[in-house]
């Protein structure tokens, strides 16, 4: 097989329109949070038909602010998945709370609602002051559900559990702008839904994020948390009256700039197209892998439409030991796949900081991780490149069998 030119894991879908808009901001007088951020927030708010959209500096900041507004602090526990980027867990630790990890479903990589309920029933007691852990005596306050790879977690079940036990839900939708769940766009929810616009995300502003919700009574607090807890934004202080302000509580410094937002406004206009193109690429992969027994392609539930942020394949258990060799083979052929995710409980920060080394075992998470490879997926990848990637994998299978 002829070696092709490099196929990276992801390439942003940016063209002259974004460049022009960013240059326009740079030529203007105001480059930090201002009118472009407002436009960007408004376009996301309208697209999702929600009451509130607050732009922030990253998906991580969005989640940390969402936890803060939900009142998470020392003495609390938050339940989530280990099959995620570590920031989902780090934000809980930053709030001084403890993390409870629950295993995922075996086909979607998403947190398993049944296992959430089992964990609660086995280890918690409902008291006058909420769900209290029989082991730690701390209070379980909420759940962070991650929409892995662009497919929504089972929010009907998860929201149902949250209601039953009086928990909040934060949605880590870093991968999921453009996805649809039970006919509703991910983001249209009374939970805080946190998007990431990191450079490889479906919609990018280089770095950036947004908290959206249909619960508008929280907007002012979200905004204040994103800017030190200041009572007035920089542009309000600049434009209206005297430059004084009050700091009501110690918030974060997590605002988005107009430079980034200008990019986001154009990316929002392209979002439907981006989602369509990513789904087209996923369908090419599905087609070329159709008869390849050793590879499982992503499973999408019938009531979900995925934003296809990732294309995670699973190699058969018989070839588990060769997962890394598949990656080495691809790299030697100029293909740059990735692995999502190294489970959070495998990282030393987690083992050492939370002092759980060897004490936590999540069989489905660990099995999936040992067999997963994320293949390049982005709007501009060609059909011939997808075929080449699949052919390289097929060659490796023949050698590894
Ligand atoms: C599942 C998940 N959650 C959260 C984040 C954090 O987003 P950000 O990099 O914008 O902070 C990422 C990735 O970047 C992610 O993949």
Please describe what this structure looks like.
The chain is of the alpha/beta class and 401 residues long. The protein has 14 helices and 15 strands. The protein has 2 domains: 254 residues, Aspartate Aminotransferase, domain 2 (3-Layer(aba) Sandwich), CATH 3.40.640.10; 130 residues, Aspartate Aminotransferase, domain 1 (Alpha-Beta Complex). It is globular. The protein starts with 15 loop residues before the first helix and ends with a helix. The structure holds pyridoxal-5'-phosphate (PLP). Pyridoxal-5'-phosphate binds next to helix 3 and helix 4.
User: What Rg, in angstroms, do the CA atoms define?
Assistant: 22 Å
Order of helices and strands: HHEHEHEHEEEHEEEEEHHHHEEEHHHEH
- In quaternary terms, these chains amount to single chain
Mean pLDDT: 95
Number of helices: 14
CATH class term of the largest domain: Alpha Beta
Tell me the CATH topology of the largest domain: Aspartate Aminotransferase, domain 2
Structural class: alpha/beta
Helix coverage percent? 25-40%
